Every structure is written in C-alpha cells, then in structure tokens.
User: Which sequence fits this backbone?
C-alpha cells in the first residue's frame, strides 16, 4: 500500500495532479476490492433468526405503494429493499447478501470521502504536514472500518441491513451537507441531503441522531457562528427537524404505549425490563463494545445480556460518565475531539441509553459508532508518529513505512477474523453452537440451537442424533429457566416423536399450566394418552381443544382423534359426527377419509362409504394396503366404477 501514503514533503504530490488522481483511484479501488474479497464467503450465509421474520412479513412480499407507505410500518425503506430482493430472487440468501455487502462498500467510500474532505478544511486545527496526509489517513480509517470483524453483525446478518442502510443514508446526508457548504451551487446538495435524511428515517429510527451530529459538525468545522448556520442552512435544518418528527411519529405508539405487554420488543411498554434497569446496564454494554473494537473476540450473535445490579453498574457508569463529560469539555478546548466524542454518544443514544429494548446488547449497534472510535485511534497513532519525529526518535522518512506496515498487518488480522466470522453464518446450527459456547447462560441460545437441530434435513441415525442433541438443548434451557414455555412444548414434541409418552405429557402439561391458551398442547396430550391406549384419559384433552381452539388444524386433528376413540368403543354414530367434522376442514386427510368410510360401513351407509372410499383413493398410492382394502370393498359391493382410473 505504499502508493497510498505520500511522502512527508507537502510538495511531493500536488493536489489535483495526475499522480494525485492516480493515487486517489488506487485508494478507492482498494476500498472496494479488498473488503469485497473478504466478504465473498458471506454469500454462502443462511437465513438466521429474525431473517425469517423479515422474509415471512407481508411487507417483504409486496412492492405496492400502498404497502410502502402503510401507517402500520415504521421502516418502509428498509422493507422496500427486502421486497425488491424478494421480487427478483425469492428466498435465495445470496442475493440479500450481495445487497448487504454493496451497502457496506458504499458506506465505506462515503466515510473515506467525508474524512478526507474534513481534514482538508482550513477550520480543522491540524498541522499542515498532517493535512497533506488527509487522503492516507481517511483511507486507513475507512479500510479498517470496512474490514473490522465487528461489522459482520450488520453486513452478514441479513436483517441488520436496516442498520447498515441507515448508516449509508446517515453518511450520505453528512457528505451532501459538507459538499453543499463548499459549493457555489449549494441548493442541489442541500436538497439531496433532505431526501437522504428522509430515506434514512424510513430505514431505522437511529437516524434521528443524524441532524444533531450534522449540526455539531457544521458548528465545529463549517461555520464560525450559529447565526451563520441559520443564515446559510436554516431551511436545511428545518427540513431535518421535520424528518426527526416523522421518525419519532413512526415509533411513538410502540415506544410510549402505557400498556405493558409481552409482545413489545422496545419502548416503555416492555414488561421484562424497566427504563432504569436498561439505563444502568448500558455503561457495561458500551464498555464491552469498546473492548471489541480493539479485541474483536469472541463475537456473539445473541448475547442475552443480563440486567446489571446497582453494584455492578457503578464502575462502568463512572467510566462512561467520565467519557461523556470529557467529550463535552473537549468541545470548548479541543472541538474536533469533542465532536467525535459527542457524536459517539448521540448515535448510540437511541439504542444504548434509557429507552428499554428487549435485548440489551447487539453488536450491529456499533456499526456507525465504530467509525468514530477508529478515527480517534488512527489520528492518535499518526500524532504519536509525528511526535516521535519531533523528538528525534524516528526519521521523518521512516514514519510512512512504519504506519503503512502497521495498517497492512492490522488489516490482514481483521480480514482473517472477518472471514472466519462469516463462516459462522453458513448454517443456523453452526451459528447457535457459537452462541451456546460463548453465552452458556443465555436461555434463548439453547432453545434456538435445539430448534435448528430439529429443523436440519437428516434421516436415520443422523436424524436420531439431532433429536437427541435438541432434547439436551431444551433440557438445558429449562434448567436455566424452568418456566420457559417453548422449551417445554418442544420437549413434548420430541418425546411424542420418540414415543416417550409419559415425558411428552409431563412437558405439555407444564406448558398448559404456564399458558392455558396453547390449545395444541391439549391435542398432543390427548395423542400421548391415545397411543398408550388410555382412551378415557385422552377424551377430556380432545374435548378441551375442541371447546377452546380457534385454529382449524387443531380442531381438525382433535375431531379426528376423538372419532377414532369412538370407533374403538364401537360408538359409530359419535365417530361419524367427529370424523365428518374433521374431513370438512381444509383438504381432508387420507386417514380421516379411510376411517370415515369404515364408520359408514359399520352404520350400513354403503353409498356414503363408497363415495368416501373413492375420495380416499384419489389421495392414496395404489400400493398402500389401505388402498387395496378400499378397492376390494368397492369391487365386492359393485362400486368398481367409482375407483379412480389411475388407481385401477
């Protein structure tokens, strides 16, 4: 990368020269090609966790304008991008990954442009020697930001495009304001900035911080007085305020609802965590984020970060408070550093302050703040290099070589770690195994690993092994949280599959005890008793399901099993009632039709039995013993003409 770092002599490369232009294109090419190569293996990543919620959302499957501007949604631009993906490539993950990587590369180029142009501003208090290295410093910051392993949570995790796309609009808005401030034709730049601010607000509401950050940038680097800002860009900021109101309006109902609910994932309506619990936990989370900047290992897909006790919150709280106060103080004595510090807190504020969110920590929240930390670090390292020259510890010609070598080494380390992290996204099982390993206290991690093991396509011994491992995962989840309903229901299902009926009943009954509305548990408890020939104990559970369930599939299954019990008791009239009800819901099941036909036979309703057997045969394979029995009955009773042609 020697071509990227000019000589120490300011006159070595004149701005605007052919050599300077060539170096500029080389730097931009590196910022595209190197991260692209590093993220190539991310294209093999699977849909994970909330990816499926996004994919199954009606908003992802509808490109209409009515859907785009629906009042029921608060991230229309993000969902529009997903809808475009779905419309072109359906459920192929690679196309979603390509878009995510492209967004990341564009954001990196914008970051490079913003830092380079800012360092060239006369108002930035840096030495002329440093100013001549503006392009190299911006290049170093942008390259490290693009390659940093922490970014995988917003790039390789598909649904977190919401974060990276918002950051792209955030950076683009700042870039447009910067260009407008230094352009004679500023109205075009400012108009475009208002558009990108709107798009950012429609992507993710963290964009609310953008106008404040841009205002701080404006006051520190573009304008000497507040009156100058008002005179030159007052209309722009009025537009930005309108965008902030729009962004707040979109999330206001969910964030400020007075009704506590289990369904909320963010806002003051959360039942699981209060604003005070969330607030006191965030200093520890922020310090953890900062630690990952310098040592990005281990990276955790889903932390399950525990609420900090008051004692646990004291030291992190003091450290983060000191950082915040220092940032404010620097605004008066070191405005550039103060701007970076305040911007860090402003961008994190929507997700890392007092507004409760279901999950206390997620790595994608550091996507944009990471740029601020890296800017401080790179500029500090450069300052150390300049200080070493002044003190005679290094030759001036040595500094470029040392810093370029350091950049290459760090970029290589980041690249290797990012490639390795992308591999964790290859399958859901692999990802959740890493989460269980790094966050063994997290109940949801054990549950999700069990669920993904169950869903893995496998047969025979491999399938049995996956079920065994899934069972262990659910048991561990229950050991951590005895009232974890989903783990109980899934354990019930596995035990039902493996014919351990008493255990299936135990877990389903625990789930019903915790959540009586889970009527499918009633059906499965009844099945478990039925398979043990305990018909009398099964009947009440099927009756409960029929009385309380509103789902057609549950009513259909409960009616079928209740009809089978009646057949066993030779109460054929009752059996007919239940089996007819089951067969009338959706597409009738083959077993239902076969047993309904047998019930008609027992009731000597030959015509109805013949019609039902014929319907059964249309759905059956000719080699099925039940199909053979049905055809024999139809032949013996002179109904051969009802047998489907393909079955004959």
Assistant:
């Amino acid at each position: 990368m020697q071509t990227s770092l000019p000589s120490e002599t300011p006159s070595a490369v004149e701005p605007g020269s052919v050599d300077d232009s060539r170096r500029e294109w080389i730097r931009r090419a590196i910022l595209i090609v190197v991260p692209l190569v590093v993220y190539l293996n991310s294209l093999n990543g699977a849909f994970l966790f909330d990816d499926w919620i996004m994919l199954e959302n009606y908003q992802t499957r509808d490109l209409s304008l009515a859907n785009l501007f629906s009042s029921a949604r608060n991230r229309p631009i993000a969902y529009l991008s997903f809808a475009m993906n779905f419309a072109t490539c359906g459920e192929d993950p690679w196309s979603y990954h390509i878009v995510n990587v492209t967004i990341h590369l564009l954001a990196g180029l914008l970051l490079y442009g913003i830092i380079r142009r800012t360092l060239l501003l006369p108002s930035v208090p840096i030495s002329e020697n440093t100013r001549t290295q503006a392009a190299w410093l911006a290049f170093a910051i942008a390259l490290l930001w693009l390659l940093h392993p922490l970014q995988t949570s917003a790039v390789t995790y598909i649904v977190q495009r919401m974060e990276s796309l918002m950051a792209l609009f955030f950076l683009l808005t700042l870039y447009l304001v910067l260009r407008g401030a230094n352009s004679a034709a500023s109205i075009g730049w400012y108009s475009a900035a208002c558009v990108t601010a709107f798009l950012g607000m429609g992507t993710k509401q963290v964009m609310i911080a953008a106008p404040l950050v841009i205002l701080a940038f404006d006051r520190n680097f573009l304008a000497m007085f507040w009156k100058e800002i008002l005179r030159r860009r007052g209309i722009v900021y009025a537009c930005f305020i309108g965008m902030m109101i729009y962004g707040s309006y979109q999330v206001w109902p969910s964030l400020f609802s007075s009704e506590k609910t289990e369904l909320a994932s963010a806002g003051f309506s959360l039942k699981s965590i209060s604003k005070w619990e969330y607030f006191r936990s965030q200093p520890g989370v922020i310090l953890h984020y900062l630690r990952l900047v310098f040592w990005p290992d281990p990276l955790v897909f889903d932390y399950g970060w525990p609420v900090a006790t008051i004692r646990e919150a004291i030291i992190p709280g003091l450290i983060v408070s000191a950082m915040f106060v220092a940032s404010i103080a620097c605004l008066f004595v070191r405005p550039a550093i103060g701007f970076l510090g305040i911007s860090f807190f402003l961008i994190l504020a929507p997700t890392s302050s007092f507004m409760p969110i279901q999950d206390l920590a997620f790595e994608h929240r550091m996507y944009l703040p990471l740029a601020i930390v890296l800017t401080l670090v790179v500029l500090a390292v450069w300052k150390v290099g300049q200080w070493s020259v002044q003190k005679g510890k290094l030759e001036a010609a040595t500094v470029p070589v040392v810093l370029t070598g350091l950049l290459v080494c760090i970029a290589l380390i980041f690249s290797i770690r990012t490639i390795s992290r992308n591999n964790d996204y290859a399958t859901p099982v692999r990802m959740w195994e890493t989460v269980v390993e790094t966050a063994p206290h997290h109940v949801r991690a054990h549950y999700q690993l069990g669920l993904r093991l169950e869903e893995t396509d496998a047969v025979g011994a491999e399938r049995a092994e996956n079920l065994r491992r899934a069972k262990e995962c659910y048991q561990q989840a229950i050991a951590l949280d005895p009232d974890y309903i989903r783990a109980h229901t899934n354990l019930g299902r596995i035990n039902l599959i493996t014919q351990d009926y008493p255990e299936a009943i135990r877990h389903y009954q625990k789930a019903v005890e915790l959540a009586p509305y889970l009527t499918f548990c009633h059906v499965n408890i009844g099945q478990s008793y039925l398979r043990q020939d305990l018909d009398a104990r099964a009947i009440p559970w099927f009756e409960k399901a029929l009385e309380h369930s509103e789902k057609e599939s549950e009513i259909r299954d409960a009616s079928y099993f209740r009809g089978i019990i009646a057949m066993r008791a030779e109460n054929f009239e009752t059996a007919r009632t239940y089996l007819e009800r089951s067969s009338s819901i959706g597409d009738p099941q083959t077993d239902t039709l076969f047993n309904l036909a047998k019930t008609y036979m027992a009731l000597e309703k030959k015509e109805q039995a013949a019609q039902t057997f014929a319907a059964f045969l249309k759905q059956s394979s000719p080699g099925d013993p039940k199909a053979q029995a049905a055809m024999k009955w139809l032949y013996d009773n002179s109904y051969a003409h009802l047998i489907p042609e393909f079955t004959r």
The first helix runs from residue 18 to 38. DSSP finds 29 helices and no strands in the chain.
